[in-house]
Design goal:
The complex is a heterodimer.
Chain A (H helix, E strand, L loop, with lengths): L1 H46 L5 H10 L5 H14 L5 H12 L7 H11 L7 H48 L1
Helix pairs in contact in A: 1-2, 1-6, 2-3, 3-4, 4-5, 5-6
Chain B lengths: L2 H5 L3 H8 L3 H5 L1 E7 L5 E4 L2 E5 L5 E2 L10 H11 L8 H6 L1 E3 L5 E11 L2 E14 L9 H4 L3 E2 L4 E2 L2 E5 L5 H14 L15 E5 L20 E5 L3 H11 L4 E4 L5 H12 L3 E7 L3 H5 L2 H8 L5 E7 L4 E14 L2 E4 L4 E4 L19
Parallel strand pairs in B: 10-14, 10-15, 11-12, 11-13, 13-14
Antiparallel strand pairs in B: 1-2, 1-7, 2-3, 3-4, 5-6, 6-7, 8-9, 15-16, 16-17, 16-18
Helix pairs in contact in B: 8-9, 9-11
The chains are: A mainly alpha, B alpha/beta.
């Protein structure tokens, strides 16, 4: 009886792990897509609206979903507070706080951190160039993420169940 | 130094400034921040280098030297992390921040078609602390009222740089607009509609079109606008009774002023000139003076005790061979000005200080 319960629990856990893994894989391209939209919006605010960066961040965040909106919102809010921090510091902090909640991986993080070193501290064209560069890189990542999802999404789920089944068989 | 100015400084620099003696802190006129070079503080008319512990010295040996990171943070703070939104300001070479302080910038310029498009890599900041002296112009205003018309006479204010011309016309705008004529006899006149053309954002120090200084309740400000054009725009759109402009001297300024005076609008303008003779040497000013566009000329002198006005009424009607007859005894007026001056700043003042 206990064995049966244990086996069921293991099966359940394995399935869940597989589901979680594939859900993360599925969420990643979507979140990158959100980020791409955010950068496009930001580019408009900066290049055509001349909106000050903290305000542009907050405005951009308003049209998005978490965790990307939280990231931008936090960066904008702490830059706007004016406690003497540079924007880069605010940005890094916002990334550090929000990254664990996101499904995104290291390449996106690197792209964002690199963008943070340039945002707000050069003229319009320069800003536009940096934003576009980051945009292109993110789009490439998005594509890769979609491929990953197609390739490993189903596999992850199946692997979870099958792995759990294997453990159960070995136990019995 | 006012708190709003302090708030703009990055932590390290703020700490150094915070350690200055209170008297020095109150009297700060300029902070000169140069990357990698000694921090210079101009306070109470004296220029000194500041050490990390807040002491001031003539020599640069032990002076505090702000580093690259501090300068970068400062630039970010004063541009609100948005250098790209400051293109116009960078082209002009200074940024006006909340509170009316002006920060002059020096660095490497970016050229486009041989013209300066902006600044990149800013290495020097001149933080000019603004302070409005509410009431500074009242002794002058009482001397330039036009009694029959119940307004002010068109006045040209002359003085070398750094004599407080801008401070005076800022307070004139406030006083005329709020109806403080400086004499009890005129108390019932009320204020006049005032238009300010603030080409260098010095008079009203507008932030997003809203004046940071108290320039009076009936005052409209055309910010960062070329003077001649701004005067015409105000004449057309805002029907001012008194126009106030800073540092006239170009021929087109003269045309606009003539236009205004024909429309019955009183003009109060300043110009860089030591005295009337000096002003006569500048073609545009001379033309204006000869056309009697101004009824009064005021010479501004900043002495040990404060700002002194020498008023010279140019009488429109009494004249021989086209020269204005000058009132033989130019009135001399001195305002005592205790250093560093009562800081009423941009809050409205109901009583002259």
């Amino acid at each position: 009886m206990i064995k049966l319960t244990g086996a069921l629990l293991i099966l359940f856990a394995g399935t869940m792990i597989g589901m979680f893994y594939s859900a993360r894989l599925a969420a990643r391209p979507n979140q990158i897509r959100q980020l791409v939209h955010a950068l496009q919006r930001l580019e408009t605010e900066i290049a055509y609206g001349y909106t000050p960066l903290p305000e542009a961040m907050i405005r951009t965040a308003a049209g998005l979903q978490p965790p990307v909106s939280d990231l931008l919102g936090l960066a904008g809010a702490s830059a706007g507070e004016g406690n003497g921090q540079s924007f880069q510091q605010c940005w890094e902090e916002a990334i550090a706080v929000n990254w664990p909640q996101s499904a995104m991986k290291e390449p996106e993080r690197l792209i964002l951190r690199r963008l943070g070193t340039t945002l707000g501290i050069s003229d319009r064209e320069d800003q536009q160039q940096h934003l576009r560069l980051a945009l292109l890189q993110l789009q490439a990542e998005e594509e890769a993420a979609r491929e990953d999802q197609a390739r490993y999404g189903k596999m992850g789920r199946n692997l979870g169940i099958l792995g759990a089944a294997l453990v159960v068989i070995l136990m019995v | 130094m006012r708190r709003d100015a302090m708030e703009l400084l990055p932590g390290e620099l703020k700490a150094v400034i915070g350690r200055l003696a209170p008297r020095t802190l109150d009297g700060i006129e300029e902070l000169r921040i140069r990357e990698g070079r000694p921090l210079e503080i101009v306070s109470c008319g004296q220029s000194r280098f500041a050490c990390e512990d807040g002491t001031l010295h003539r020599s640069t040996d032990r002076a505090y030297r702000p580093g690259r990171e501090v300068c970068r943070q400062l630039l970010e703070r004063i541009t609100n992390h948005s250098l790209y939104a400051m293109e116009e300001e960078l082209r002009r070479g200074y940024i006006t921040v909340p509170g009316g302080h002006r920060i002059g910038l020096a660095g490497r310029t970016v050229l486009e078609g041989g013209k300066v498009r902006g600044l990149r890599e800013v290495g020097g900041f001149n933080f000019r602390i603004a302070r409005a002296r509410v009431g500074a112009a009242l002794p002058l205003l009482s001397k330039i009222v036009d009694w029959p018309k119940q307004t002010v006479r068109s006045t040209l204010i002359l003085g070398p740089p750094q004599q407080g011309k801008t401070t005076v016309i800022r307070d004139l705008a406030r006083a005329i607009s709020s109806g403080e004529w400086g004499t009890p006899a005129a108390a019932s006149w009320g204020g006049r509609k005032v238009g300010i053309v603030d080409e260098r954002s010095e008079i009203a120090a507008s932030i997003r079109g809203v004046p940071a200084f108290d320039v009076g309740p009936r005052t409209d400000v055309m910010d960062a606008c070329p003077k001649a054009e701004g005067m015409m725009m105000l004449l057309r759109s805002m029907s001012p009774e008194v126009l106030i402009v800073d540092e006239i001297g170009r021929p087109e300024d003269a045309d606009a002023i003539r236009e205004a005076s024909h429309a019955g609008v009183r003009v109060i303008a300043t110009a860089h000139a030591y005295d009337l003779q000096d002003a006569m040497g500048r073609p545009a000013l001379r033309q204006l003076l000869e056309d009697a566009a101004f009824e009064t000329v005021v010479l501004l002198r900043r002495g040990e005790k404060g700002v002194r006005f020498e008023i010279d009424s140019l009488d429109r009607h009494a004249q021989g061979h086209g020269r204005r007859a000058r009132e033989p005894s130019g009135e001399v007026q001195a305002i005592a000005r205790g250093h560093p001056g009562p800081q009423t700043d941009s809050r409205p003042a109901h009583a002259p200080v």
